[in-house]
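Homework help board

Subject: predicted structure for assignment chain

Our instructor gave us this sequence and asked us to write out the predicted structure in token form, then describe one feature. I got the tokens but I'm not sure how to describe them. Can anyone check?
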Amino acid sequence: MQDVTEESAPPGGLRERKKRATRAALVEAAVRLAAEHGAENVTVEAISEAAGVSPRTFFNYFDSRDDVFVMIGADSRTRIRDAVLAAPADLPPLQALRRAMAAELAEVEQQHELWRLHAEVLRRSPRLLVRSLGVYASDELGLAETLAERLRAGASAEPSSASAEPSSAPAEPSAASAGSTASSADDVSRRLALDLYPRLLAAVGVTAVRVAFEHWCVRQEERPFADVFEEAFDLLAAGLRAPSGTPSGTPSGTVDGQD
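My token output:
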């Protein structure tokens, strides 16, 4: 790619780092401009200028202006999938997912202002919000496929309920994935290849991070985000039992208060 590539750099080396840095700069510039002026009033030229690249370079990373608003955190999600697969084989799936996500906490905490602005931009633009939800659904599906791959790798040679071949999760975020929707025929076939457990685990993990982050955002002075994250996953690991002192609800053996 012009402006950001070096043909002599090895894969995953300087070339890839520069690509990731350029994509991140474009996303941040777009979010900050949209937060100030409104997403509909932000142009590709303005985003490119703020990021210090040319409009031509912008279109090396995104197919359209709208794509840049829904790609925040894409590189982080790719690293999480890679870390899940690289985790020790004897680590339970929930713990493998927890460790992989925890490794990304520092970046999320450092960029919480940008994530807050991004949420505000989406809130003010229903069209972008719908597009973003489609991207998150696709990312969650990719994570479920990664978890299923890990489960298959750790399974014995005996027949497994997760024996169907997975669809490979993308190694790198793309503008094409940003334009896809959860209802596409491809996504349907990918879901058919998955068992319930990896899908549920992916959804629970993603939701736990989202809720922990939202909880921390309004209580930042109380404790670090990492502590809130760890508590959320401790609750999941314990089966979401109610904390001590919390009413447990309807007594065992009764229905609607009747014996």
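Reply (TA_rk): Your tokens look well-formed. For the description, you could write something like this. The chain is about 60% helix and 0% strand. That's the kind of observation they're looking for.
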